[in-house]
Amino acid sequence: MKYTRDILVDLANELVLKRYSKDTKVDAVFLVGSVRPDNAIIESPTDVDLLVLHNGDIPRERELVKISPDYHFDIYFEETNYYNNPKDLRTDGWRGWAMWDPLLLHQNNHFFEYTQSVLRSQFDDPKNIIGRVRYFSNRARKKWAAFDSAPQKTNPTDYLKAVYDAGNAFACLSTQPFTKRGFLEQFYQQATEMDLPDLIPLLIDCISESKQPDMIRDSLTEWDHCFTLATQSFANYTVHPYRINYYRSAITRQLQGDLPIAALWPYMLTWSYISQESSEHRTIHRAWDQVSKMAGYTQDEMVTRIHKLDAFLESIEDIIDQVCSDYGVE
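Structure (tokenized):
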């Protein structure tokens, strides 16, 4: 069955009606993410992102609900009090954009109308743009400092999260954060449009020592096998049975596209999560050992990766400083 945006929105409404409409602890439910735009082009596989706001403790942080083998709901839970001050949301790199233009599916009060109205009124003021940019750059720099003080203990997943934060600092100079699957190809497009092509190799250097898409093509079957093994015991929402098609399709599509190197990002990100199961599965341990050697993620080589992150982040920070100067923002 081909799922259009309208079908996915209808399914989201059905889920909300069944699960949340009578729950007095739920203040609001929103459709966010790639399916939100009215003209969204629906990839297959894809996920449908929902944000559920609770007026108290949340039942969990996240949940995946299957629609079909290629589609699922990705539900995030947060406390409403994080959104109580809409002026502060203007400089929040994630929550600010979440409230900018979500599709409201349910609410128990008029929380959303007020919040969005205040948020939007000065959202594009230079000081708020820079606030969102620094939201990400400061997070990345803080993580880098922790890595730099103990490089041998640096976790590949935490490292790549810092790379993602650094890239999203750049994204927020002109748009919202990049998507998780399409991070590298979206960064490439924005850097090209802003005539800053020198940033692209710096980002690629952060992600992997090997720059050959053949590394991915030659090991994709093994990636598939290890991903499946990891889902059997790893309670994580990246390495999850519902997500294997989601990430495999992104890697394959990018390998076959005009920028095959973009597949390095979803490939290495997922491997970083899979690798955390290496002590439990010999097959995963052996496969990750080979990938980490090619990509430069062995314990000895993490020092180099951390230096690459520093160089990339420093270049982003230089651009931020220049934009601040242009805007007259401190």
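The chain has two domains: 5-123, 127-315. The chain has a mean pLDDT of 95.
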